[in-house]
Amino acid sequence: IRLLLIVLSLAAPCWAQGYVCAEGGGNAGKGAWADEVFGWMVDKGGHGSVVILGAVPLDEDSRAALFTRLGAKSVQSLVVTQENADRQETDDAIASASVVFIRGGSQSRYVQWWKGTRTQKAIVDVWKKGGVVAGTSAGCAVLGEVVYDAVNGSLIALEATTDSCSPRLTLTTGFLSLVPGVLFDTHFTERGRLARLPVMLAHCKQDLKREDILGIGVDPRTAVCVGPDGVAEIMGEGTATLLRLTESTRLRLANQAPPTVTDLLYTQLCVGYAYDLKKHEIVRRPDGV
Hints:
It is a single chain. The protein has 289 residues and is of the alpha/beta class. It has 9 helices and 17 strands.
């Protein structure tokens, strides 16, 4: 019995010592929202070193200068591919950071190239040591316990509502898993993704046998910033949309047929709200609400 308890404790997701910043996308060089969100990362990282991770090169990235202006000790940009994801020098570079920021692009690359490598472990270790792991767009999508991985291409909302078992609807577990019980979706309101997130949650129940997953749709220029206590603060310009299945939810998923997903709990939180992800309750409202 004792051995079984130990194994279960290792396998189950748990809250660790670090911080997570899940940002829904958007240009960090436009608008005042970025100072608040990126400033939170720098502060929680103790104004230490920042590593910006991506899977493909960028011609220019204004976020390095932004981190520096907000007080980061140093900023390094690192492209992590299949070839170097498991190298010691990549591990060392990530391990030196107090803030790890994962860029946008395609989360399929992160899942396929980094999963099971030193890169994955190094990112998680930064978080476990009390650091910050953040991501935008695709980088946001990989932060939860369940990841919509897009390994077969991006699933648009129309496709999710006409083919509930689309081959583009693919989920990954066992990657970073920094926010237990959560699946993040990105660019949420601007791309009409309210129609596809319930279908993802339905597949969590049907395929993963997890009906307790909380779907969080994050708008661009908006961040869900989670502390070690499991409380998420909404920052930026937009909203975070929270969806959960209930005991009354009815599901029907079939190939090339529309889905049935009824009786969901729906909460939409604007900037200034705080939400306890463990207790599933609002713990702070904006002034005047």
